[in-house]
Amino acid sequence: MIRANGLTKRFGAHAAVDGLSFEIPRGQIVGFLGPNGAGKTTTMRLLTGFLPADEGRAEVLGLDVASEGRAVREKLGYLPENNPLYDELEVVDSLRFCARLRGLEPARAERRLRDVLEQCGLKTEAGKRAGELSKGYRQRLGLAQAIMHEPDVLILDEPTSGLDPNQVAGVRALIRELGREKTVLLSTHILQEAAALCDRLLIISGGKLAADGSPRELQGGLQGDRRLLVLLKAPAELALAALKALPGAASVTPEKVDDGEGFRLECAPGEDLREAVFRLASSRGWPLLGLKLERPSLEDVFHKLTR
What we know:
The chain is an alpha/beta fold. The chain has helices spanning 40-48, 69-74, 91-101, 106-119, 135-147, 165-178, 191-197, 215-220, 236-244, 274-284, 298-306, and strands at 2-11, 14-24, 29-33, 55-60, 63-64, 76-79, 153-157, 183-187, 200-205, 208-213, 227-232, 249-255, 261-267, 288-294.
C-alpha cells in the first residue's frame, strides 16, 4: 500500500530524509517514531506529494507519487500536523466543501456526510463553526475531512498532539476503528500510544531508518541487555560497591524502595547476573528481598536507537 525506496530530501546541506526505504502492506496501523528533527513530517510530505523528493521513489497503491500525484491523492487521506480548517465554516459545510473538492457526486456526498458525522462522533457538533470547536473535536473534524472520499490509505501527522487525556482516548478509538478498514501510517511522540495503537513501528533517526518491527519485536531486540532490580537488606554503600564489583556488571544505580536497599543493575551484553547476585547476598549474609529481571520498555528501545 505504501512503499518508500531510497527517499532523500535535502534542505541546503542538511539531509532531512536520507535514503529511507520501507514497505507497508494492506491493513496495518504503523507508527512512525523519532525525535524532533528526525524527518517524520518531511517523510509524510514526500509520501503525500506535498514535497518532491530529491532522490528515490515513493509509491502509494502502486502509483508513483512524483508522476501520478493526482491519482495518488484521490486514494489518500492526509491529516497534517497543523490540521488546517476554515474556522468560519460550520462542520457540515466543511465536509461538503471537502466532498466537492474531491469530486463526489451530490448524492454520494450526502451519504458520506451522514456516515462520517456518525463515525467521527461529530453529530452533536454538526452546526457549529470549526472555530468554536474544542481541540479534540477539531482533530475529529480533520480526520473526517481526510476520510470523506473513502481513501484506502491514511497518513496522520501527530493526530493526538495537544489533546487532553479524554480527547486522546476518543481520537485513538477512532483511529483504531479506521484501521480495521484502511492502511494507516501515523506519527506520534507518545510511545504508549504507539504501543497501544500500532501493529508495527518504524523508528527513524537523522533521516535514516533505525528500526522496523512490532512493539514486542523491538523490545525483544534488547533482551540481550538484561536489567535486574535487586532488593537487599544491607548497608547501602557496601551493597552498591559489591554489586559494581561483580564481573559482567555494566552499571549499578540506587533505586528508592520502601524497605531495604534497592539497586538497578545493568548487565553487560549477553550476561545474566541473577545467580551471581544470589551468591553474593548469601556469602555476605544479606537477606535478598527481591530479584527481578526487567523487560526493556519501548522507551528504552527508543532511547538506545535515537540518542
